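Review form for a predicted model. The reviewer records the input and the model, then writes brief findings.
Reviewer: anonymous (R2)
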Amino acid sequence: MLRLAVATDAATFERMREPLSERGIEVDYVETAERTLPLDGSAFGEYDVGFVFPPRLAEGGVADALLDVPWVNGREAVLRSRHKGEALARLGRADVPTPETVVVSNPVDEADLRDAFRRFDPPVVVKPNATTRGVGVAKAADLDSFLGVCDYLDLVHDYRATGDQSFLVQEFLPEARDYRAMVLDGQYVGAVERRLPDEALAEGRWKHNVHRGAEATGVDLDPDLRRLTELTAAALDVDFLGVDLLVTDDRAVVNETNARPTIDSATKYADGFWDDLAALIRETAER
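Model under review:
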């Protein structure tokens, strides 16, 4: 039986164990962070392949060297998706539609921030360049609010050990439908629509993150949106990719990508999803 190393023990790990075991792949959790890691080779067992490069890049590099396995999504694939500005820049060069975006690399003068804000029709969205689950993402309706958010980011970035001192300013798309699609080995395999409950919308909330109360419902995207997700994965050269789409009545854009996507319940994906994932894992192991 093929042994697969998985560097997180969250929902995806639990969901994948049984269906992959039925297909001859043993799924094991390898703890790469919040522990001690002796470099004598005793930290891990023997594995044939890794799933997705560990979330903490420094410790992940140690684990990568000790495990010595190919990854379905390796370090470079994760990095191309992890930093939102880079991902959007690559997608723009590949003619994939994205929201209008300005990347700010701190420190910058207030005049530069004012110029960035004036490129948009407010409100604007401000988000850290490398964040997940919507953490740190804010909406600013006017210049004063925008500069206030930037002040807080400036305080964080003033700490010299902060590795990433950049953030994004983006157009806000009101009433946009929010989809997370999955692309596996170049093919669209399913999607969910993420929606906040009506009472949350009435309170003025707008971020459709599942961990903050949004519900994910399986949907069948139309062919144009499917092609858009596949073009995104091809442009970033990532085998297993979550693609976040914002869709209004007159346009669709790729808002973010995730090379460490959570696998939802299998009913939200195309028939044969687990067969296809098992095939990709085996193909990776043979590289």
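Findings: The chain has nine helices and 13 strands.
Further findings: The two ends are 17 Å apart (CA to CA).
Recommendation: see findings above.
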